[in-house]
Amino acid sequence: MWSLIHSTERHPPEEGKPRPGPRNRCWGIYCRSMTKIRAQLLRFRELALGVVFFSAWFVQSSSRIVGDVPLRTDTFLTNPYGVFIAAGFAVAIALCRVRPGTALSLTGALLVLQLLFWPARFSQVSWVAYVALILIVVGVSAYAPSNRRRLLLALSMVSSIAVSALLNVPFLSLSGVWGTINGKDAASIEVIQGFSAWTVMAILLTVGAWHFGSRLRTRIIHPDPEPSGGGATESDRADGDTSSPSPDPRPDFTDWDSIATLSSREREIFLLAARGLSNSDIAHSAHIGESTVKTHLSSILTKLGFTSRAQIVAHAYQSGLLH
């Protein structure tokens, strides 16, 4: 309180500008609380997407699901192994945010199981579960560590080719005689044509999904700054220094130049901390340990000349780095 009084004496409010009141402070508290709640809800986004995917697939295939392994000629029936594979894809979707490498490895293991074990292959109805691979590629691209992105992209390409083979090559189908998609035997030229066409389409879908995930990654790490007209809004003043509307005594940095001294990883940690996330939430989002988060935060405070995380939040909003 004493420091607040002295701050007001040093920087008296300008005429015509209202003094920050309880309403502004309450609005700032509300904004910070909603930011934290939103961050908690986003942690379960991929899990919810995996549940929705599996539920939709199960409803679509439920009339053809049986409790035992039928004959190989019953190509429209889905046995428990097929349900297990679809459930595995749903788990991979849920893991994309926290363990992107594990999610793609699990997907590859399930495809290898289908290649080697015919009861695990999808029927002519349940093969639509392969749509999950698009969601998995998007998630892996959005959250994969930078030093592993090329490897994971290559594995995604291999997985797409494996899916094309499972759908078109007769001896890799559930029946072992006719292709899952075209229903042709190995002697038909349509098998080669179908495999070629599906391979090209699968690779294009993989590249498109990876590109989309990369755009999401950019928004996660570097959200679009909100244009400002030179003055802070009520919520900005509530989140920042409420003692006076005068300029902050620190140097006036703007836009991304304000954190140009930070490394790419430190910028990522800076923005996560500016959103009000705790150390554990930051570690969860950035896929690093809490001790590493503390090290990065200490480096950020030192480089920017700050002494607390509250200054990070205020600086991010005042510079337009966050909405």
From TrEMBL:
**SMART domains assigned to the protein according to its UniProt record, in alphabetical order:** HTH_LUXR
Q: Which CDD domains match?
A: LuxR_C_like (cd06170)
The highest taxon in the source lineage is Bacteria
Extent of Basic and acidic residues compositional bias: 7-18
Q: Where is the HTH luxR-type domain?
A: 255-320
Q: Which InterPro entries match?
A: Sig_transdc_resp-reg_C-effctor (IPR016032), Tscrpt_reg_LuxR_C (IPR000792), WH-like_DNA-bd_sf (IPR036388)
According to the UniProt entry, its GO molecular function terms are: DNA binding
What residue ranges carry the coiled-coil annotation?
A: none
Using the UniProt annotation, give all residue ranges assigned to the region (Disordered): 1-21, 221-256
One GO-annotated biological process of the protein: regulation of DNA-templated transcription
Q: Which UniProt keywords apply?
A: DNA-binding, Membrane, Transcription, Transcription regulation, Transmembrane, Transmembrane helix
The record lists the membrane-crossing segments as 42-59, 79-96, 103-121, 127-144, 151-171, 191-212
Under the heading Pfam families, the entry gives: GerE
* UniProt xrefs under PANTHER family: DNA-BINDING TRANSCRIPTIONAL ACTIVATOR DEVR_DOSR
Can you say what this protein is called? Regulatory protein, luxR family
Upper classification of the source organism reads:
Bacteria, Bacillati, Actinomycetota, Actinomycetes, Micrococcales
